[in-house]
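Example 79.
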Amino acid sequence: MSNNHRPVYTTWYLRSYGDRDTHQGQMRPDGTVLSRCGVVFQPRLISRGVFALPSNPADPDQICPQCRDGVPANRGVVR
Ligand SMILES: [Zn+2]
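Predicted structure in complex with zinc ion:
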């Protein structure tokens, strides 16, 4: 069995309100988010009980460039 499966991430999560710290990823059962760029983090609460942004981030400066431009999820970048 090869391990080349690349998950498709469509949801944006805030890691912080700082620049380039909104990531596209998938929430895991433990409540952390595995992002497209390889960062695992505890997402910020957007509103009560809601972590995922309802759409693309409004401010482009807040978007993680690696999540925006696309990096193979299996590269395993850890920051
Ligand atoms: Zn990212």
